[in-house]
Each structure stands twice: as C-alpha cells, then as structure tokens.
Automatic annotation (TrEMBL):
This is Uncharacterized protein. It comes from Bosea psychrotolerans.
Length: 151
C-alpha cells in the first residue's frame, strides 16, 4: 500500500496525489476501478491514466467527491490527497466546496442483444444524466438573477 507517509517528497504534487489515489484503489476490493469508472461515466482506461503518476492527465475536480465516496478514503488519505491536489491545481478545490451533494440512481435496462446497441443505450442514459446535472448551473444562475446578484 502507498500511504501518504511513504510517498517520496521529491515528486510533483500531481504525481503525489496520483500515487495516493493509486494506493487507495489498490488497497480496495477487486472491481473498485470498474465501479469508479462507471460512477464517473468514463472508461476503465481513464481510471488507469488518472491513477498513474507517469501520466500528466489530471483528476477532474468534478469527480473528486465521487472518487472519495466510491474508494472510501480514510480521513488522512483524503487530507493528504487534497493537500497535494491543491498544490498541483491552485484554486480548483473551491469548486468542490461549493458543489451540491450528488445522489446515485441505479437503473436497470434490458439487454438489447448486441454490445453496440447496449453501448448506445448506455450512452443515451448517461447523456440524459449529464444534461440534468447541467441544469444545476442554469438554476443557480436564475436564482442569482432573481436575488439581484450576478451569475
């Protein structure tokens, strides 16, 4: 396991938080990468990229809370990760603090008998979900205008 205390201090903050994330995921039950990929709507290969310190692919800030939830970060792991994330991406964490809590909805779809059709159906459902999430920003903007604030 890669604990925050065992990560070398001479690596970049980006590599540091990726090493912490990789250590957490490697210490979880089999299937965690797949569950995480499904929860954030990405391929499993994307998870491999965001947990590999050798890749420059950053962890998108909008996925942090989902990552913490799915991977069950311990408080010291979470704090070490957030410290390194803040060092790597100054100013991005404010989005996490102001983001609305998310809820998970599990739906069952029929098997369409074809991997291509199943993938298209999954894509459609995920697109609808992302569209619903985009309503949050629209609603917040409208509320700010109603209250005399600026969006």
């Amino acid at each position: 396991m890669t604990s925050p205390e065992t990560i070398p201090t001479d690596i970049s903050p980006l590599a540091t938080y990726k090493a912490i994330l990789r250590g957490v995921i490697e210490n979880r039950p089999s299937g965690t990468r797949q569950r995480l990929a499904e929860a954030i709507g990405k391929n499993r290969s994307f998870i491999s990229q965001i947990i590999n310190p050798a890749y420059a692919t950053p962890v998108p800030v909008q996925h942090l809370e989902t990552i913490f939830h799915v991977c069950h970060f311990a408080p010291p792991e979470r704090q070490a990760f957030l410290n390194a994330y803040q060092a790597a991406h100054p100013g991005r964490l404010e989005v996490v603090d102001t983001e609305r809590p998310m809820r998970r909805l599990v739906i069952e779809l029929p098997d369409f008998g074809s991997p291509d059709l199943n993938a298209r159906a999954d894509h459609i459902v995920l697109g609808v979900a992302r569209g619903l999430v985009s309503l949050i920003a629209t609603n917040d903007d409208e509320e700010a205008e109603t209250l005399g604030g600026s969006p």
